[in-house]
Amino acid sequence: MKRIAVLLFNLGGPKNPEDVQGFLYNLFADKNIINLPFGVRQGVASLISSRRAPSAKKNYAHMGGGSPILKETEAQAQALEAYIAANTKGIEAKIFIGMRYWHPFIEDTVREIDAWGPDEIVLLPLYPQFSSTTTLSSFQAFQKVYTGKARVTSVCCYSDNAHFIKAHVDAIQEKIGTLKQPGHYRLLFSAHGLPESIIARGDPYQEQVESCVAKIMTGLGNPIEHSICYQSRVGPMKWIGPSTDASIQKAGADGKSIILVPIAFVSEHIETLVELDIEYAHLAAASGVKDYIRLPALGVNASYIKALNDEVLKAIGSGDRVVGDHNCGKCHSFCPKRRVA
User: Fold this and answer.
1) How far apart are CA 196 and CA 239, in angstroms?
2) Whether the Cβ atoms of residue 44 and residue 34 lie closer than 8 Å to each other
3) How far apart are CA 289 and CA 43, in angstroms?
4) Dihedral over Cα of 154, 338, 307, 132: its sign
5) Of 83, 70, 71, which Cα lies nearest the Cα of 310?
6) Helix (H), strand (E) counts: the chain
7) 206 with 329: CB under 8 angstroms?
């Protein structure tokens, strides 16, 4: 039996109000988030985290004071481990969780993996679309501390995976099937935004968001209107768009109801449970949107778990150090495949 350690990467989140400022500091101290020299970046991160902590604590209060993201990730890890055990012979897979900005930190999980003694390690981000701010940052955190001898394969992206696409298609079709007048609705695919400067440096995130949405719409085979939008903007920089709030307002002005699909989030957390469910729901009502429907994040959706399983099998069977489903038309500067080559 080959022993395979699968390390699921996720953002992490505070467990209680006392954790909020520390979590925010870790987030903004990441060089992939704020591209400033080390000492300056730490000072900026300290300033931002202290200023934003009070309002962030109020938002986390809507979720009982902390984020559910660890619990969500643990459920996904259990589902994936059970699926692999039931459907794959010849390997013993153990799923580990490594969070980028709060416990359990990637650095701590690496020690657990070493103690388990795997033959191979698969780095599997719970970010379907690759970005330097998420996937690459997690890869770097792992590489900084891992000194073992097991073979390591990284899954850089899987938003074009057929099972990932199917999970979204099925969820949308099921919801549309319950509507009396689906033509009155507009699909809004909302993804986390990025500053335009990061995309200009070669980050493929926006391209991959657009690619998977195109495949979902093909799978739907339904003429329902749709639009891609981006949420969670902060700071004075120019961000990719259109923004989710502007898209909601436009739907209201156009007399459209909304089915909102969180296309880049696979776990429920502050940006879905507060930003989408509370802040944007209020905006939709104020903008004259008659019906605002938010589809849940994929979580332990059976097709999504199959997609993750596909990526694990691809990683251990490929012989490559980096695997991914998206066929980039232009090799982007952050691509881990390019860096390996």
Assistant:
1) 5
2) yes
3) 42
4) positive
5) 83
6) 13, 9
7) no
Q: d(Cα 320, Cα 266) in Å, to the nearest integer?
A: 26
**Cβ atoms within 10 Å of 84's Cβ, excluding its own:** 21
Unique residue bearing structure tokens 């330097």 = 132
Give residue for tokens 């150090």.
Answer: 321
At a CB cut-off of 8 Å and minimum separation 6, what does 264 contact? 127, 128, 129, 190, 191, 192, 209
The SS3 call for residue 68 is: coil
Please give the model's pTM, rounded to 2 decimal places: 0.95
Nearest-angstrom CA–CA distance, 265 and 128: 8
d(CA 57, CA 45): 17
User: Which residues, 6 or more positions from 253, have their beta carbon under 8 angstroms from its beta carbon?
Assistant: 287, 288
For the record, the structure tokens of 199 come out as 């995309």
Query: What phi and psi values does residue 191 have, to the nearest 5 degrees?
Result: -120, 160
According to DSSP H, which parts of 98-254 are helical?
A: 106-116, 137-145, 162-176, 196-200, 205-220, 244-253
Confidence of residue 27 (pLDDT cuts 50, 70, 90): very high
Phi, psi of 325 (to 5 degrees): -90, -25
pLDDT tens digits, one per residue of 29-44: 999 999 899 999 999 9
